[in-house]
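## retry 2 of 3
previous attempt timed out at serialization; input unchanged, resubmitting
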Amino acid sequence: MDENLDRLFKKIKDQPFYKLSASGNDFIIFLNFEEKITSEEGKILAKKLCRPKFSISADGLILLEKPSTSSASFSWKFFNSDGSEAEMCGNGARCVARLVEELGLFKSPFYFETKAGLIYAEVKGGRVKVALTSPKDLKLNLVIRTDYDWFMAHFVNTGVPHVVIFWDDIESAPVEKIGPKIRYHEIFKPAGTNVNFVELVEGDKKYLKIRTYERGVEAETLACGTGASASAYISYKLGLVDKKVDLLTKSGEILTVYIEDEENKIYLEGDTRFVFEGKIKKEAIL
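## retry succeeded, writing output
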């Protein structure tokens, strides 16, 4: 182990971490209110600890810290599994809200601070509802050409950038082939974008099926909260669904999105799981 990793391990070896999951997205969370872990160390920890099979495994790592404003109870730093820092994560937001409520740190409802802005959260047992930052940069009916094919797509930022493509049979969508081509497409440089494949299911009750290729994870994930919110919002703007819509994620769990058009707000609601609490062993970061 090099000196930097050894120094980092000494900082965290006696500090508990928490593992929570929401709709199949899982996260490693540290309480970092004393800011012992720096942002650069957060990036290293994310890359080391999020590795499947060799370490804890997760879609992202979150540091909870003191807020910079009195309007928020706390702030966070969110790191994708590749170590990149993201502005926002809907399912991660629901997990941290569940955690701080369960630990008795803050009482629901409350606001917390992200790079995307203030997030409102309500916790009712394992079910958590968050209000995302206002959607922006809506662009409908974009033609995107790739060396795979061309696509009619839609774009909105729900805290992080999202492209939405409607697909007739979502199970057949080649998410891992098309996702990277749009994620890195020149239209969305330099930030890139997440890519959602959506199927509208009509019957007694309309709902959406969704699969997401996530920026920063660089793969399809079992769910994406901001992606579900973006997909519901665009579907609503296209007149396909009502202001309240359920989305069936890859994990099989249901996310519910509420659109408050007058307030320009999106609310995301679903179940969470408090999986375990533990301490890091040195070999987890080797």
